[in-house]
Design a protein that fits this description.
214 residues; alpha+beta; Glutaredoxin; 2 domains; globular
């Protein structure tokens, strides 16, 4: 009986030792392995180039040429060498366009003296309603005379720009509907980020400051 008991105890002790050795090995292995990367939160919106917004991958911005509120011919290409904010509005808009104009004005105020190195181009989504006088009045109302070119034209002139930048625009029985988009284009004429209608003045100012300082 004593021999059998000792044999069983030996087997139990051996099994316990094996379990202890396995646990020690697993613990050492876990300490040596790097922790898994944290899951993305999706809240910041920052991408690999450090700009806040949806990355456009640095694709060349489609070229265009239109007339601004002062009757001057304005081409996107003439602003090569400085960041460009490109957006779409119409002057009789009751809500989102005035709000976005206010955000852009606030962004320029945040930039201070750096704002003079930024170009803002607003492309009309209402060929009929956005006359030169309407564009001038809208510009003055939002105190953007020093900051933007409000670009107007016929439907034939504006529609290719809408299409190139994936903007929907229509006028049905005098009611204008359009998608809102804001593109930030770098000094080399490349689309860097896209901001939706919930963009903030701080986002725009921060992105532009980063481009200016790059």
């Amino acid at each position: 009986m004593n021999w059998r008991l000792a044999s069983r105890l030996s087997v139990i002790v051996l099994a316990v030792l094996v379990i202890i050795i396995v646990l020690i090995f697993q613990h050492h292995s876990n300490k040596s392995s790097p922790p898994p990367p944290p899951s993305p939160t999706g809240g910041s919106g920052f991408n690999s180039n450090g700009l806040d917004g949806t990355s456009m991958g640095g694709t060349p911005a489609p070229a265009f040429q239109l007339t601004d509120q002062n009757g001057q011919t304005i081409a996107l290409a003439q602003f090569r060498g400085q960041p460009v904010v490109l957006t779409f509005m119409y002057t009789h808009c009751p809500d989102e366009c005035p709000a976005n104009a206010g955000k852009l004005h606030a962004a320029m105020q945040m930039l201070g003296q750096q704002a003079q190195h930024i170009a803002i181009l607003v492309v009309s989504t209402d060929p009929k309603g956005d006359t030169r006088q309407a564009a001038l009045s809208f510009t003055e109302k939002h105190d953007m005379q020093q900051y933007w070119h409000y670009l107007i034209g016929t439907h034939q002139q504006l529609a290719p720009v809408w299409s190139a930048y994936h903007i929907y625009a229509s006028n049905v029985n005098g009611t204008v509907q359009h998608s809102i988009g804001l593109y930030i284009i770098d000094q080399q004429g490349r689309e860097q980020v896209y901001l939706g209608d919930n963009f903030t003045a701080a986002q725009v100012a921060t992105d532009l400051r980063m481009l200016l300082n790059s």
